[in-house]
Amino acid sequence: MNDYYETLGVSRDASAEEIKKAYRRKARQLHPDVAPGREDEFKAVAQAYDVLGDAAKKAAYDRGQDPYGDPTAGFGGAGGAFTFSDIMDAFFGGQAGAAGPRSRQQPGQDALVRLDVPLRTAVFGDTEDLTVETAVLCSVCGGDGCSPGTGTRTCDLCHGQGHVQQVQRSFLGQVMTTRPCGTCQATGEVIVEPCTDCHGDGRVRERRTLKVKVPAGVDTGTRIQLAGQGEVGPGGGPAGSLYVEVNVEPDATWTREGDDLHCSVELPMTAAALGTRTPVETFDGTEQVEVPAGTQHGAVFTLRGLGVGHLRREGRGDVHVHAQVVTPTRLDSRQKELLHELARLRGEEQATGTITSVSEQGGFFGRLRDAFSGR
Ligand SMILES: [Zn+2]
Ligand SMILES: [Zn+2]
């Protein structure tokens, strides 16, 4: 014997209204339009409601008779006017080709929102707050669109069929055509008293804030799919997906190239010539970059693995530090004197942009000059 109460998730003393609500909720989750592949569960729910939703069948079931259980249990197959196959035909469109009423619950649409994130989020990943406004299930009616305590009645025009037939004359004679019923939007039922909150739509618009897990490696244009966070459908149908399109904000310090990050560091001419250590503020903290003596403008120092995390694999890109050698300006007389002396020592006083060959000189200054020119 099937446990129909358990199938619908209601207690044995549930009221007719509670049974109906439970059925609607289950049918909405399992409807073939929105949950393909779960037809068996849907059939079980429809079967349970066929019995528990009918006063006579329910009374017989409560006495121990199951119309879908043991065929000798005494039901004799002669239930009420509403049979199981009617329900199945109504939901699955009917095997005979006649379209039944369509479900009032329709799947919701996807939604797309943009999320601005700082570069740091792309480097490490983070959880970001995102405020969205979408249709959500109406909490007053639970999605069925009916004022609490009321229900639906069969559409007068189509008699619950969801479609109406018309006879038209043509050269072939009379032709029967079928069109969807406009009075009930082809659902076969009419809401008696629409819910005042959603006006019978089963959903209301609501602003809410979501926590979005943004993985490392995202870039501008990356889309994150959040299933079930999109628009709730008409009649409280299951929500579509929410697509979050990431926009990585420009950064004042860093330029991104794939998962590598580039920055530049200014080095005084003297430091570039003599060599130094210079601090670079990375996303992982301060790194000391060794600048060897004789560093040229445009030289690049690479810090492995301190760039943006890869989106679909382990590891991170690199950081590239570009040396910007700065020529001093506004020299005082003493500094000028020293630079003149240096230029003299290096034979660069008449330098015009091309390096002139320096005649061989001995002694200390010659060795110093050789050290500077790398010879
Ligand atoms: Zn409502
Ligand atoms: Zn109708």
Explain how this protein is built.
- One of its GO terms (molecular function) is zinc ion binding.
- This is Chaperone protein DnaJ.
- Belongs to the DnaJ family.
- The strands form six sheets. A four-stranded mixed β-sheet has the order 10-11-15-14. A three-stranded mixed β-sheet has the order 1-9-8.
- It is 23% helix and 27% strand.
- The longest helix has 15 residues, at 16-30.
- The protein has 375 residues and is of the alpha+beta class.
- The protein starts with a helix and ends with a helix.
- Among the domains are: 4-68, DnaJ domain (Helix Hairpins, Orthogonal Bundle); 101-133 and 205-250, HSP40/DNAj peptide-binding domain (Sandwich), CATH 2.60.260.20; 254-351, Sandwich (HSP40/DNAj peptide-binding domain), CATH 2.60.260.20.
- The model is unreliable at 71-98 and 358-366 (pLDDT under 50).
- It has nine helices and 15 strands.
- One zinc ion binds next to loops.
- Tell me what the CATH architecture of the domain at 254-351 is: Sandwich
How many DSSP helices?
Answer: 9
Number of strands: 15
Poorly predicted sequence stretches spanning 5 or more consecutive residues = 71-98, 358-366
